[in-house]
Structures are given as C-alpha cells and as structure tokens.
Amino acid sequence: MPEKTIVNVRMNGDGVISRRGFVQSVGLGVAGLAAASFTDLVALQAEELRKKQMACILLWMSGGPSQMDTFDPKPGTTNGGTIQSIDTAVPGIKIAQYWPETAKMMKDIAIIRSMTNKEGNHQRATYQLHTGYAPSGTVKHPAFGCVAAAELGDPKFDLPHIVSVGGAGGTVGAGMLGVSYEPFQVANPLQLPENVATPVPTHRFTRRLGLLQSLENSGFAATGGADRVREHHSVYKQTAGMVLSPRMKSFDVSSEDPKLRAAYGQNAFGQGCLLARRLVQAGVTFVEVRLGGWDMHQTINDKMTTTAGQCDAAYATLLADLKKHGMLDHTLVIWMGEFGRTPKINPNAGRDHFPRAFNVALAGGGIKGGQVIGSTVESGNEVKDRPVQIVDLLASCCKSLKIDPKKENMSPLGRPIKVVDGGTVVPELFA
After folding, report:
1. Are 134 and 85 in a shared domain?
2. Domain count, the chain
3. What is the CA radius of gyration of the chain?
4. Which of 99, 171, 209, 297 is in the most buried spot, having the most CB atoms within 10 Å?
C-alpha cells in the first residue's frame, strides 16, 4: 500500500490558494501528490467531499417549541402541568404525549435535552441557530445550510444546492458566500415552483440567454460593472440549468403513492418533508422545511395538539422513508427551533421564551440513535448536566456531514470567518 499524505487547501485573504494549514483532506499517494498541481489538489479536496454524498434536512420549528411539551416532559412536577409522557421504542426514554409516531422511531433519534443559550429574541436566535454567530452590523454570516451546500454540492448539478420550504419565519441566507448559494424558496410544496417553465422553445430560450450575456459583456461590464455582470451570469446560468433540467420533476410530490402522502400528512409541512426526501434523493445537498406556530404564549395545551400533530406524523414518516430508501445513513436530519419555552405556565396558560434550557433532536448521518444526552433539573429551569452550546451542536453537525468546522471563508472586509467559531463535537452522538 502506498503511503498516504493528508492535505488541506485554504484560500488566503486575497482569494489565492495558500499551502498553510494542511490537515485532514485528500489522501494521495506520495507519487500522486508530487505529480499533482496545487489547483488539482483543490479540485480533489472538493471531489472527495462530494463523493460522500452527504446531505442534510433541517426541520425548523419556527417560534420556539416547548421542551416540556416535546422531548423533555416532566409529569407530576410543579411545572409539568397536565402533560403526560409516553413510552418509546427505546426502554427508559419517554417523550411528551403529543408524539406517538415519533416515539416509534426513537431507536434512530438522539435527543439533546441540555441545549443552552442566552438569546431570547426570535430574529437574533434564529440567526444564531442557523449560523453559529450572533448578528453583526458588519458581517452577514452564511447559514449552515449554505455552507454545507458550498462544501458538498456538485458544481455541475442542475438543481439548487439548498432549498427552503415553507413560509414560516424568515430564511437566513448565504451572506458572504454570495448569491450562488442563496436558498431556493418553495413557498408551497403542494404546488410546483412558479416561473420555471420556459416561455419559448428551448433553442430560442438558449439564444436569448446568449444575447443577454453578449449585451452585458460589451456594455455594462466594459464600463466598470464586470463583477456585477459575472455574478448576474452565474445566477442566470444556474436558473437556466434548473429550468431545463429533467430533475425538476423532483418538485412534484403528486407523483408519490397516495398512501405515503397520507402518512406524511395532507398539509404543507407534511408534504414539505416528503419534498425534502425527494430533493435529497435527486442530489440536493440541504433542504430546510419550516413549521410555524410554536410561539405559544397563550393556551399552549390546545395549540400543541394541532401543531405537534402535524409535525409528529411528518417527522416520523420522513425518518422511516429515508431509511426505506437507504438514505438515512448519509442524510443528517435536524429537528430544532430557536429556543425553548419557560417551564412555568404563565397567566395566559402559555409559555414564554426560554433559551436557558431546551432540546434538539438529531437522526441519520452517522448519529447514534436511541439515546438522550444531558438533562435538566426537576423544575426545568436550568441544565443539570452535560450542557451543549450552539457551537457544539454545529461542530457535531459538521462531523456528521464531514465538513471541516475550522475552514475559513473570507468576508467582504477581508476578515476570515470560520464555519464554526469554537465549540466541541458532542462525542456521545457518534459513540
């Protein structure tokens, strides 16, 4: 066996390839390494990531789901209220009564009950959970999904690398990664995306694109707008490739077995989860499906039945469906919201914002299911053991997807920004 040399390629502040910081990346024989150009090494590094075919589905619970009404119930306690817990497929693990279908899939799910943070504002916490960074006036950090798309997506792929499904809450975008990695928005998964049909025959459509490019190159680009034109061409190239792609049929959930569609749930979130499976199966790297309604400041018991009912069926069916298609091992499924809710019921029979202790569920992508990590005290007011920070969670997601969390992207101000700034992988997730 030839000796392997491990190489990592990094861009410097001027966007030029440097030779510093060589760690875990492309394994080449010594002879092969000597023969390869540095540009070749960059291409090989990216290709090695893409060969792993890793993907991620984020189920975003917009508004902040109550940990006590989801995966950390405390029946019989002062703050537990009337919530009952139910058994799951894993002896000893109990979850709230609203999640009977999810309970059946618990062998594939790891629950982190000890998530902790300080940000209790919806917009700021949403940004932080998506990027790993607090909002800044000077830097627009890319969402983790956009980073995953940039790291793992095949540049020749003719669908968007990242798709955002549902209208609940704002989408955190690509930031400094640029428009090429902005999420493609699907407002309603029950309908095909709008404006994806060519208004004229394909040959005329292609000719028109060529004319547009020629006009921009000879006009605006020649008078100082070259960067804008280059970005514009990139977007139009992506769009044209998608419009003309036979993979566009992946957006049509109506072609699925009616029984499977019913199992997911005949609602926007359930069909969005089905769409996510179809898109990942077609080669899309990252899909976010959003479900709103979790900001339950009033009458939480009444609202949980409806909201959790939609999520429970869709979540459990998604995991089972991915498993059936042999996709769960290389698809990380994240269930989370921006924070939890106060353990104590407020005077309006609801729960308020509470980032100090909340839960997240992970499955697939090499995650060891059938376990609970961390715990909260009996009152639920704080983490009892094994606190997990946002950066720890994202570092663990990077490990699952085989992304280097220390890789740096350069901001427009020339500042290197790591994919995850600090944090430690939660080893129990991969034990």
Report:
1. yes
2. 3
3. 23
4. 99
Residues 91 and 161 in one domain: yes
Q: Kindly list the distances between the CA atom of residue 372 and the CA atoms of 289, 352, 364, 428, in Å, as whole numbers in the listed order.
A: 24, 25, 15, 9
Render pLDDT for 119-150 as a digit per residue (tens, 0 to 9). Answer: 999 999 999 999 999 998 888 999 999 999 99
* Cα 389 → chain centroid: 17
Domain final position from 228, 243, 258? 243
Task: Say whether both 172 and 204 belong to one domain.
Answer: no
pLDDT in tens, 243-291: 667 788 899 999 999 999 999 999 999 999 999 999 999 999 999 999 9
Q: Which amino acid, residue 113?
A: R
Residues 129 and 270 in one domain: yes
Are 10 and 36 found together in one domain?
yes
Output the CA torsion 281→284→285→290 (10° steps).
-90
Q: Which among 194, 115, 136 has a CA at the least distance from the CA of 359?
A: 115
Between the ranges 156-160, 237-241, 283-287, where is the mean pLDDT highest? 283-287
Name the token pair of 69. Answer: 């009404």
Q: Which two tokens stand for residue 316?
A: 């459990």
Q: Are residues 34 and 166 in the same domain?
A: no
Helix axes 38-51, 144-152, angle to 10 degrees: 110
Count CA atoms within 13 Å of residue 364 on its CB side: 27
**Single pTM value for the model:** 0.82
Domain span holding position 90: 52-194+250-430
